[in-house]
């Protein structure tokens, strides 16, 4: 079940809390300018795929777990592949395949307004968050721009998202979600590419899975 939290916090597109918070009273024009370019880049792609690493830490609970995953995104559709499960949506219906239990749960795809999902990480800043540019950063000779997003909804389970954006390409390198319960979710993109993929890939095809799977329709 822990991997299901990926969808609640998630591709999604994340400690300078005191001084930065003051800038969050309104959107930072520099941050918005950068994010607009990021959005333009991703929306220009018909479809893309990414290999990523997901790291969950919680110092209070002594948790430090790392997983590898892969995702395909096409418009409002996505197909997320994780070690223990797959999550597929065509923008209307969502299928969650739990590998260990050989079970598929079918639900309506209705993400909440401020929910971070793989196909919304680069657009959530438009209405549900306040954005602030934090700093330029150089790592292994590569330049990045660091931006933080603060949810407008005070009841959100997390208090900020930190985005690391490749400066010259305006692609998202990583995003880190900071929860109020001291959990941190870090997604780091290892490989990214445009891809040609048909719409059927974003619907669950039972012929490609074990024959004895149980289908649970929760709609």
Helix and strand arrangement:
Layout: H1 5-9, H2 17-23, H3 29-43, E1 48-58, E2 63-74, E3 77-81, E4 85-89, E5 93-98, E6 103-108, E7 129-139, E8 142-151, E9 158-166, E10 172-179, E11 183-194, E12 214-217
Parallel strand pairs: 6-12
Antiparallel strand pairs: 1-2, 1-11, 2-3, 3-4, 4-5, 5-6, 7-8, 8-9, 9-10, 10-11
Strand tally is: 12
Distance between the termini: 19 Å
Q: Beta-strand level of the residues, as a percent range?
A: over 45%
Average predicted local confidence, pLDDT: 84
Helix content: 10-25%
Structural class: mainly beta
Shape: globular
Topology order in helix (H) and strand (E) letters: HHHEEEEEEEEEEEE
Strand order of the largest sheet: 7-8-9-10-11-1-2-3-4-5-6-12
Radius of gyration: 18 Å
Q: Largest sheet, described in full?
A: 12 strands, mixed
Task: Describe the structure using short key phrases.
mainly beta, 3 helices, twelve-stranded mixed sheet, 219 residues, 12 strands, single chain
